[in-house]
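Fold this sequence, please.
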Amino acid sequence: MPGASGMGIYTLGDGLLHVVGPHQFTGFCGIHTGWIEARVCVLPGRPPGVDVGWDAISEATLFSPSGRLSVVGLMGGTAEALTDVVVPRGLIRVRVQSRDRLHETVRTDDDPPEQHELHVWAVSEETPWRTVLADPGSRDWEQKPGKAAEWGMLSLVARPSGRPAILPPLPPDPYEDDAGLSRVAVVRHRPAPVEVPVGVLPAGDLEVRLERVDGETLRWSWATADEPIFPDPLATLPDNESSTVRLTSGPDGFTLRHEGVLGRHAFALGLIWDHLLDATGSYPWVETLRGQAAEGTALAEKYRRLRAERDAERWGGAPPSDRVRGLFGQARSLARIDRRLLDRIDALPAARQREAACWAARRAMRVAGLEQIGWIADALATAEAGRPLPRSFTDQGGAVAFDRLLSDPEVSHTTVTLDLGSGAFGERRVTEALQQAAAFPALIALANDDPLAAAIDAVYNAAIAHGGDRDRFLTDAHIALR
């Protein structure tokens, strides 16, 4: 079946079959590289007995939301007849039968071909894998239920993908669409009495709450932990609906039924219950989550320091208010030439910010010789009176007004020295610019409805328009804005 599981082989299984996830198990052949004969048989229900003539038979439960099953070779090879075989949607039980498994070092031309057969039928309960018929010559694998339970819990509380938000989301996988499927039960049996934990099962940022309903029944529900451990805590629960855990006794032992669980969670929950029933009070996933949280915290702190260093370089000190940082104008440019002035503007009430913008625009027009140009003087007076600027100053960022400035014969043309700061190799960069073009954006800034943005842009452009007298203007601005 498609979908990598994450739980490796050699954790749970026998000499024929190792379970590795809700959608997948690994089968073992005798031959390492070569052809075998295999087929899949879909049955209407559990086979009535065990077929004779096979050397090894094992079973496992899988979850197939797509209703398709594929047999894939060690190196990814497939056969058309064993690809996307139609099986029941939801939980299925798969019985694997094999015979004549011989390694190529001992196989001869007279030996019959290796054969594997998969019998598949629908089920509504997730039950453990089991050996139906053990191959006398196969290896006995050490079972690792604690490691399996750790994988199971980690798969349920997996953190979101680190895929950058600027990339488009991945399309949904049709093999994982479980819409319309009924909830299922996880069933475990023990011959001796068992104890079911009551209270809270820790799971990092989340927790499982097991609340007793009566002598045989508990309620299983997911919740966020009171004290999350990751720097960016999980808020989405694996399942928003509670489920029911029943423990009953009978002549052959004790049976646990965890009812009403999502089919895609059944395998992981089965692994968790296998561990909890045999090792009460042991939660092997806790230390792994703590380790991941510690790594996440260290990484978050590293990025925080890098951001602080970057912001200090960009803003000439500690970052200003979030409102200033969210502006698209000249806030960062003003911070580089006078950080204290930026903070002073930010601290002003809105009415004073609008006054500061008009004050700076008038100073810019004056130093560039534009204060007495009729249409410019009228626009400035309009803004100072609290009325909207003409459309030529507001549409397309004031492009029409700027073109008029450059073509107006009454506008004088003078130059001003612009200090562009240090280049990549530390050299100081200066250039000459048209003073009127440098000053005019201070007037256009008054079209901004945000008084803070208008004030910052107007003050910055006015400072630039003063050229070599920039420091004197900045001193005057500090006095004017007290």
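The mean pLDDT is 92. The longest strand covers residues 90-99.
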